[in-house]
Amino acid sequence: MHYHQKTIKQQIQVSGKGLHTNRQIDMILSPRPMDTGIWFLRTDAPGNSPVRARSENVSDTSLATTIGHGPESVSTIEHFMAALGALGISNLFVEINGPETPVLDGSSLPWIKLLRNVGLRTLNAPRPYLAVRRPFELTEGDKMISMAPDKELAIDFTIDFPGFIQNQGKSFTFSENGFVSDISPARTFCLLSEVEKMQRAGKALGGGLSNAVVVSGNGIVLNQEGLRFPDECVRHKILDFYGDITLAEAPIIGRFTVVKSGHSLNHKFLTTILTTPGLLELVTPVRTPGERYASLVAPAPTLRQAWAN
Ligand SMILES: [Zn+2]
To answer: Phi/psi at 52 (nearest 5 deg)?
Structure first.
């Protein structure tokens, strides 16, 4: 558990191809002081304003999670956000010269390595968390997300793509090292026929075997190196879900059961629980020696007061 807010020790530049545009994208990450949040600024057009990485600013969830509008928007932020969340980085300024983050290898692991390499700075400010206080469930067709109070963050995820990836389930209880070893290396995945369809529509132009698990119609993995885990796909869905809920801006403590959800329902669920009174409570975890779990002290501010700036 991250008891204090963090940022990075010094500025770094990261470059790589965008998944949909196949363009070289450069990102400059800069440290920021406490209580500032995570911001993205598109530097490829003049006069843009920075966009805060928070659920209210999500503008599209069709293929990936996008924040901001038009020339200020930044897409496919979820793998990057998951890495920041796992390492406890909540203050950062990101300058980016294109419409999407570099895809790197399609997982969060390269981001984790880059961020750990540059080093983290612990700031002299407590990290607020959101504790789930009441159960809640949201269903959309055959997709479902539910949550319940718990002493830590746990995610039970099930996927089922008939004839492609059948009935894969995984439970993950969050710890930084557990996320780094068991979830962050899991790559995004897609059906070969979908890649071909997207590329004909001018999307996923940078997508391929170097940054995704590609599965043919009969469930055969086309990547020569094979899978990183037998259940890599459901692990990646946990990664995506975790990345999406970091847009609450405070880590959530509770148990989530997720069936077949994607970015769209993840976002709808997060927006609903953040705006429905009584479901979540802003808390400050306090280290209690000898106990496995931190005790949670509830402060006075309501959900968004802590982020008034
Ligand atoms: Zn993903």
So the answer is: -80, 135
